[in-house]
């Protein structure tokens, strides 16, 4: 038996105030994290061709973008470093005067309240572009853990607020937790890239971070896009090893995974709206095919609806402007 006409769902859709009053999913600027690429050997911000509106930043110019982020109300940035020198073991990743270590100190000096999150991975620092130590053409898991832990400690010593391992080596969260605790950083949170797929959506990032592998691919350590049960196992291990926050990356094609993780775990959950997702929207908007604001806000709301507590996105500054009263 129909409930119409006594039940009319359109009653609460008549105007914006009514729609806002009954809105189930909220997006706020406090849930956003803005990624920043910091590069050695440049004097001015360098636009990234495949990511319109995104730059590589010299340390000296971080004051400008940090002020924009803070003024927008965005609480955190995620740092990626591009060193001038790369080698087989990514030694600049854990150097005291490495590019990220310099960037952390600069940001904490000029904007002490801004949360600085650092990506912990060797791919941007190695000459071969892989996320760990390579021997005989194979990425070595356990040897890589030693360097990743050293990298995380160096970030903590420079003043990082959160470290975020993205390498996908087995046991990396436990290795970082032990190293951080041993060096007096037991209170420093770990944001684990728990579910990171071997995705085609990373293409523009590899240009931005200059981190494309020089041989092979990363399928031996990043996840098969076809798997979701494996994703839950990855999260289970990271939680057991001491992760404080968990992440799903990419986001847009993996909302079902975000939902499954949300239903099974109560840790803060991060969705990474990655470079390819960003660039597709930008390209379509520049061609006049879509309304950029409407599409971006719909995507972000979808990620929140799927269960994400926080969203890492290159759209963050635009979203903050659109959310402003």
Oligomer: single chain
Write the H/E string, N to C. HEEEHEHEEEHEHEHHEHEHHEH
CATH topology term: TIM Barrel
Q: Can you count the beta strands?
A: 12
Over the alpha carbons, how many angstroms does the gyration radius reach? 20 Å
The residue ranges in which pLDDT falls below 50 over 5 or more consecutive positions are none
* Contiguous helical run count: 11
Q: Major beta sheet, specifics?
A: 10 strands, mixed
Estimated helix fraction: 25-40%
CATH architecture assignment name: Alpha-Beta Barrel
By secondary-structure content and strand pairing, the structural class works out as alpha/beta
Instruction: Tell me the fraction of residues in β-strands, as a range.
Output: 15-25%
Shape: globular
What do these coordinates show?
There is one protein chain. With 325 residues, the protein is α/β, with parallel strands linked by helices. The chain has a single domain (27-323), classed as Aldolase class I (TIM Barrel, Alpha-Beta Barrel). It has eleven helices and twelve strands. Strands 1, 2, 3, 4, 5, 8, 9, 10, 11 and 12 form a ten-stranded mixed β-sheet that branches. A two-stranded antiparallel sheet has the order 6-7. The longest helix is centred in the middle third of the chain and has 18 residues, at 141-158. The relative contact order is 0.13. The model has no long low-confidence stretch (mean pLDDT 96).
């Amino acid at each position: 038996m129909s409930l119409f006409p006594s039940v009319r769902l359109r009653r609460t859709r008549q105007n914006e105030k009514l729609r806002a009053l009954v809105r189930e999913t909220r997006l706020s600027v406090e849930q956003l994290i803005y990624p920043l690429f910091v590069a050695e050997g440049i004097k001015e911000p360098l636009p990234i061709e495949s990511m319109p509106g995104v730059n590589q930043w010299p340390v000296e110019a971080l004051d400008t973008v940090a002020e924009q982020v803070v003024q927008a109300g965005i609480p955190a940035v995620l740092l990626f470093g591009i060193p001038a020198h790369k080698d087989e073991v990514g030694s600049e990743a854990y150097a005291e005067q490495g590019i990220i270590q310099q960037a952390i100190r600069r940001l904490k000096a000029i904007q002490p309240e801004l949360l600085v999150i650092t990506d912990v991975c060797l791919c941007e620092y190695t000459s071969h572009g892989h996320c760990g130590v390579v021997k005989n053409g194979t990425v070595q898991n356990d040897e890589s853990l030693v360097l990743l832990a050293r990298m995380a400690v160096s970030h903590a010593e420079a003043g990082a607020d959160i470290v975020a391992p993205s390498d996908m080596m087995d046991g990396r969260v436990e290795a970082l937790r032990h190293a951080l605790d041993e060096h007096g950083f037991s209170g420093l949170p770990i944001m684990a890239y728990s579910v990171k797929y071997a995705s085609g959506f990373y293409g523009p990032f590899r240009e931005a971070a200059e981190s494309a592998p020089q041989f092979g691919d990363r399928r031996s350590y990043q996840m098969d896009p076809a798997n979701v049960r494996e994703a839950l196992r990855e999260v289970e291990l990271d939680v057991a090893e001491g992760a404080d926050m968990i992440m799903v990356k990419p986001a847009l094609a993996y909302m079902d995974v975000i939902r499954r993780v949300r239903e099974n775990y109560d840790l803060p959950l991060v969705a990474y709206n990655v470079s390819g997702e960003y660039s597709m929207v930008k390209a379509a908007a520049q061609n006049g095919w879509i309304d950029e604001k409407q599409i971006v806000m719909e995507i972000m709301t979808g990620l929140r609806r799927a269960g994400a507590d926080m969203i890492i996105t290159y759209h963050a500054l635009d979203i903050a402007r659109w959310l402003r009263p």
